[in-house]
Design a protein that fits this description.
The chain has one helix at about 35-45, and strands at about 5-10, 50-55, 60, 65, 70-75, 80-85, 95, 100-110, 115-120, 120-130, 135, 145-150, 150-155, 160-165, 170-175, 175-180. The protein is built from one helix and 16 strands.
Length: about 180
Amino acid sequence: DLPLDSWVIFVDDDSNTTASNPNLGMYIETAVPTLEAAMEFALFNIDNGVNVSALIVAKGNYAPVVNTAGIRIIGTCAEETKIIAAPNHERALVFAGPGGGSLEHFSVVGATKGVLIQDTQATLRDVVLTQQFVETQALDDTDTSITIEDSVIENLTGAIAVTVADSASLIMRRSILRDI
């Protein structure tokens, strides 16, 4: 259900494609190797008038990412496509900026301060968050919201699973909170 007039960028942690490849990110065979580099490439293309709608991510393990492009990050499946945050990472995932965006078909694990939605609208769809919480921050008078669908938030013993700022909104559909 991606727009027909948009581009996608392929991401694969097993890729060894270099930035000098003229087909970088255009095919799975020339995938960008990290989410961070793919997001930078998406922003570059958007700034130059290209309609980039999504990062299509192969199964594998990826470092945290900040989505300021407002695009979808679509994994292969939640069981085999993971964002793994090390203790030195501030957040596993951040959505910020006017575009919003989504994370779909991923697991998010590791020791961090979780997922942040800041002054934007974001969606988590078919995501498993293990020891990760979701937080919204509405710093401006923007429409800040998080939609969590078909997802699991787990293993936050004694912690808060979702924090919603005063002026923000939360929609949860067919999702599970367990071992909270």
